[in-house]
Amino acid sequence: MTAVAVLAALAGSPGLAQAEQPYQLRQLSATDDNPLPPGWRIDGAGGAPELVWRAPKAVPMGDARVEFRTGDRLLGVPKPARDGRTFRLALGETRSEQLTDLQVTAAGRRLDAAADDTRGSRSRVPRVPAQAPANGVDPGRAGPYRTVTGTYDLDPVRLPGFDTPVEMTAEVVAPKGATGSRPLALFLHGRHGTCYKPGSEDDVTGDWPCADGYKPIPSHLGYLRDQRLLASQGYVTVSISANGINAQDWEAEDAGAQARSSLVRQHLARWADWTAHRSSAPAVVRKAAKADLSRVLLVGHSRGGEGVNRAVMDSLYPPPAAEDGYRGPVRWKVRGTVLIGPTIFGQNPVADVPSVTLLPGCDGDVSDLQGEVFVDGTRGIGRGAALHSAVYMVGANHNYFNSEWTPGEAVAPAMDDFWSDPEEPDPVCTPGAATRLTAAQQHKAGATYIAAAARLFVAGDDRVRPLLDGSGKRARSADPARVLTHAVGGRRSGGFLPDGGAKVTGARLCSAIDPDPAVACLDPEAPGSSPHFAWWETEQETGRGAVDLKWSVPGKAARITPAEPLSLRGSQKLALRVFVPPNTTGTKFDVSVTDSSRRRVTLGSVRVDGLPGSAHTASHWAQELRVPLSAASRAGLDLRHVTSLELTPRSRSGQAWLMDAWGWAPGTSAVKAHALPRVDVGRTIVEEGDSGTRTYRIPVEISGHGSGQVRVYVLTPGSGRAENRLVTVRPGSDVIDVPVEVRGDTAYGDDVQHDIAVKAVHNAVVGKHRGGVTVENDDPEPVITLSPVADRVTEGETLTWRLSVDAPVAVDIWQPVRVLPVTDGAELSTKDVDPQWLEDYSGDAPDPERPLSEANLWVWLTIPAGSTGEDFVVPTVRDQVAEPTESMRLALTDYDAEPLPDRPVLTGTVLDTP
């Protein structure tokens, strides 16, 4: 079977391209130039090859996706086994020579190797950032209301794609004695273990429902302190359980985002019912103040953050009915979201609803801090009036925002998600470091900033905005946490952006994601990472970038010239988002602007220090720096037609990255969601057939209203490469037309996915961002045999066996063989075979001499696609010692190295030299 997907309609191609001819494949074993690293193997059981990695200890169930990579290229998302240690990925069309530099990552963090902190960060000592001045209003202080607490547990609901119903369980904390209708805040926890065995230290599972002797992990109870704070201030709060989703989302192509959205909206629909009919509500809801569903705040932690973002999207722009788990009317209005250490695998934020994203500086789970995309990814998408804030909390980890994920507080086993080698403690995040927060400090600071978002987005109190929008104020209740913020949207205007045709001189316009180090913004060898450059679906992206400034002497200006003049009229200051290498200090710039009449004015100077960072942290994060525009006004500069921005370094040497710059004014803009088109990519599964050629099209649904632009990436199976086009979409149109040509055959092969990935660019939203056509192999597995070619030789000659299939196949066939102890007579020893062969195949040395079966001789053989066999050879050596006839035994095995019960064990005999 061969198949190919192309951008026929998008690129104006007259027809379908033909599939590439497969490369010649070779055996993958210890004899290769690039053997599999320890912990890796190829499993050919069942005929379909899988790449398998086994961790030295269980990998805790978390929110970041475990991914297999070859260098910077994604191989795929493996399926976890129940043991928590074994991960398996179907190889599909990936060729053996492509399995180099294998890595296991989760949110950019290596799981199979320690981070390299030998460059850069250790040469500078991390410093605690200076304490910012206090804000006049502190949202972390408790309000006047006493609270009432209780649980409701409704019938579970069925969600599309999930076999097991999902619970409808929640914890309510509400103000007692509050009059009138009160705003509603809904919390959704992230992906965590689902069940635990009471009394055990580490017996946690991902099952649902829980097995006998196990209890559900009450992750939804981990936000009670946050709920009590909000309830004391007059909010009705509800925290919902999602264990049923956590147990099943590994099978969902979107990692459960749509299911979590459906669950959130199922709960909101119940609250809408109870508001209209109080007598039908659970007891705790009847005791609480009446909820005002026109003022809703959604709070999501980790995958819960992506879930509530999707719930907002689905409330404004309905998803395809077949994939939605809630199909009723929308009787609520979401005023804002709080996203705590969130995932955003689709990189599809909702631009027209305000958000606050908490980024934990010591996050050991979603360690790439991809939640920054909830800020960066909104630029240019909608109206730009909604404020999107990033709150970087130095020293906070991922888990401690939830008390049920916190050791000493949780009823189930819990852990600090940030782990570092005790022999080499992390200078920033190891507990006890000056920059690391305790669990109590972290949770208190988190509650304060959740309350700040509620007060700004729901209550409309602009006095708390300086805590969130990059104004550099702190909330006393969050002390001693060091919290930095930046934002886009709100009352910002203009926008010096690296993308959209801007020209740069005196610096480098770089790409967030690119395999070429000369093009990429961040040196791949640099310690640590940047939240602004979180990886998406492709090894190269268009439209994400920054301006990279590097200088060895002061005074050389970097100039950014947008494609069209910008207006900064009505702005008080110019706000720049700039980051410098972690742990650096004293980087200074002069900031200048020029108008269309070539009048140039220096606005002032800014200084920025790097965040505390190490090889384990994502500390290349932009801080907001502001300079007044008053000098421009005094000089008569035309702020309606600003043509360029200049940054002139005044430090002796250094490096910095400019993300963007905006005109800034105080205040909060009125927010109204824009009517936008929505794009969802589906999946079609087809069989290849035995003959003929058929053409299928990747299913894409475009709904909503208006027109907008998206970028479509067509992913080449097994290569990591992608073609992309900018496409204008309108509801009901078929402009994203990607045909897949499938040729039938009778040769056994792998299932192959022909996928596209879609990202919003302007005036559009994307729901399910990835899908395609999966072509299933429908031919029988080959019969694999092992037969002797030369199994009786004289010492110095070569024993040979042939691994064969009964017919040529379209893919590599992987099969392990193992040397077993002999059962009769003398066995060949490690000194009876060629020493280089022994080292290549087993990694062992001949000394001390021992039976050959005691060497590590379990070898994976590959029959290349199109071939019917491959030889396994054992070169023997001739010596001068008189010996009896010796032998070795060889067997086909399963992937656990156990001999296959239905296959013979073969014997090779070596005669002494006459």
Give an account of the 3D structure:
The protein has ten helices and 51 strands. 51% of the residues are buried. The strands form eleven sheets. Strands 10-11-16-12-17-18-19-20-21 form a nine-stranded mixed sheet, sandwiched between helices. Strands 22, 24, 25, 27, 30 and 32 form a six-stranded antiparallel sheet that branches. The chain is mainly beta and 914 residues long. α2 packs across α8. The protein is 10% helix and 33% strand. The longest helix has 20 residues, at 257-276. A hairpin with a 2-residue loop joins β8 (102-106) and β9.
Set out the fold topology.
Blueprint: E1 2-5, H1 8-11, E2 40-43, E3 50-54, E4 66-70, E5 73-76, E6 79-80, E7 86-90, E8 102-106, E9 109-110, E10 146-157, E11 166-176, E12 182-188, E13 195-196, E14 204-205, E15 215-216, H2 224-232, E16 236-240, H3 243-246, H4 257-276, H5 283-287, E17 291-301, H6 303-316, E18 334-340, E19 355-360, H7 373-376, E20 388-393, H8 439-458, E21 483-488, E22 493-496, E23 503-505, E24 508-511, E25 545-551, E26 558-561, E27 573-579, E28 587-595, E29 600-608, E30 623-628, H9 630-634, E31 642-649, E32 654-664, E33 677-681, E34 683-687, E35 693-697, E36 700-704, E37 708-715, E38 722-729, E39 739-743, E40 752-762, E41 765-766, E42 770-776, E43 784-790, E44 792-794, E45 798-805, E46 813-820, E47 826-827, H10 835-842, E48 858-863, E49 869-875, E50 886-892, E51 906-911
Parallel strand pairs: 12-16, 12-17, 17-18, 18-19, 19-20, 33-41, 34-42, 44-51, 47-50
Antiparallel strand pairs: 1-39, 2-3, 3-7, 4-5, 4-8, 6-7, 8-9, 10-11, 11-16, 13-14, 13-15, 20-21, 22-32, 23-26, 24-25, 25-32, 26-31, 27-30, 27-32, 28-29, 28-31, 33-36, 35-39, 37-38, 37-40, 40-42, 43-45, 45-49, 46-48, 46-50, 50-51
Helix pairs in contact: 2-8, 4-6
